[in-house]
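Our platform keeps sequence and structure together, in a single record for each protein. Such a record has a labelled line for the sequence and another for the backbone structure tokens. The tokens are whole numbers drawn from a learned vocabulary of local backbone shapes. The remainder of this section carries one protein's record, kept here as part of the documentation:
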Amino acid sequence: MGNTVELRGITVDYGGGDYGGGRPALDGVDLAVAEGELVTVIGPSGCGKSSLLRVVAGLVRSSAGDVLIGGERVNDREPGERDIALVFQSYALYPHMTVRENMEFPLRMRKLPRRERRARASEVAEMLGLTTLLERKPHELSGGQMQRVAIGRALVRRPRAFLLDEPLSNLDTRLREDVRAELRRLFRELGSTVLYVTHDQVGAVTLGDRMCVLGEGRVQALGAPLDLVARPPSMFVADLLGAPPLNLVRGRVERGRFRAASFELDAPGRADGAVVLGLAPGDLWCAVAGEDPDSARCVVTDVERTGVRTVLRVRMDGAPAPGDAEVQVRVVLRGDHDLARGARCVIDCSGAERHWFDPVSGARLT
């Protein structure tokens, strides 16, 4: 079976009935990571991402289900017997040790000869660009350098699989991009089996061969990252992915037309009844309405201007359908636009791809 990781029906219930309204942290999770594959795991806070890694590592015992590493059931094995490496959000470096000593430490615990320890540490240091820093101590390093040392300490072990729990969240944006690129190159070159937990959508999409979306302790979606972003299989995924995510507009289809408040467009092939329409903010266009206020269909309620793009929050005119909230959408415009709060405007969605979802199950409609 090689260096594979598999979860079969994993349930984790910490007890006390206070986790997410009494639900288990993980509820029947199935997930298989092939040898040499990098699977990213993303989801909202409290969805069970870290619990999933801790079960694989052996730091948390599951209430039900099996963990298999290399095809072997390891439920009863201690963390040190599972031959995996776990990299946490915190660097957890020994402050009194040099970079070399930190990287060699797990090999010392295995009682490897000094010559082999030094050779492995030097090899990994070269891969990570740490060769000139080997004699420094952690307080002499930047955040990005310390994170690379923490990753290097895992790499020298040559484990069957790597588990990374938010390893870049303490870094600033630019440094996060640089280290993420290094990780992508490194794991590809090594052919490592990796389970990578993150809340960073860019990292989840760009690093992963596949992406697992967790929600409420369950796998909500699993597939190629760009496919999940382009065609979200459910409202949960559509509302999670994207920056900003899809606009989800609740309305009704009547005689081939979708209506929600003053919002109306063609809905060819859709049966009459309640439905949720998903529209990508970047596919929409917003323009100031004419002088006649009766021609205005929307009101700008908020504006975020960055110079590179302008993000508008727009409220639709008209009464919402019974039981529905008022209709609001986000519109992303390239460049800098001078639309102000309170401006009356019209929205053009003629060029937007339309995603349809069942309002009850949340599933994507074909």
User: Anything to note?
Assistant: The helical segments are 49-57, 99-109, 114-128, 143-155, 173-190, 201-207, 225-230, 235-240.
